[in-house]
Amino acid sequence: MNPKHPSVSVIVPVFNGAPYLEAALASVLAQTNPPSEIITIDDGSDDDSATLIQQMAASAPVPICYVRQQQRGPGAARNHGVAIATGEILAFLDQDDLWAEAKLQQQVQIF
Q1: What angle do CA 64, 67, 68 make, to 5 degrees?
Q2: Torsion region of 62: left, alpha or beta (phi above 0 gives left; psi -120 to 50 gives alpha)
Q3: Which of 73, 68, 59 is nearest to 39 (CA)?
């Protein structure tokens, strides 16, 4: 662990989030202190969420992992993301939320 730059995994549970996902993921990718990975857990969506995530992953400066599971709810999706995360710090983003550009930098400094 590098105490000055710990790795951060962002976990994003998704269910039919296509209308919001591009902006939500863009807000993570725009961080002044970018995460080491973004893990999206698709909780059985039947919209274009998977396609949108995979398109963004193709050009993202950090890895975006896409995992699909049978619909079990947002708690199960978060737990699945926690189980596969590799970061030293975990951050959670809902599919319809946006982060301020310095969110991760400020939180990592506090840790």
Answers
A1: 145
A2: beta
A3: 68
Side chain identity, residue 86: T
AA identity, residue 68 = R
Which residues, other chains included, contact 13 with Cβ-Cβ below 8 Å and sequence gap of 6+?
A: 41, 43, 74, 77, 78, 81, 94, 95
Quick: pLDDT tens for 46-95: 999 999 999 999 999 999 999 999 999 999 999 999 999 999 999 999 99
Q: What angle do CA 107, 15, 24 make, to 5 degrees?
A: 40
C-alpha torsion 31→86→89→67, nearest 10: 60
The reported pTM is: 0.94
Rounded CA-CA distance 27/25 in Å is: 5
Tell me which amino acid residue 61 is. Answer: P
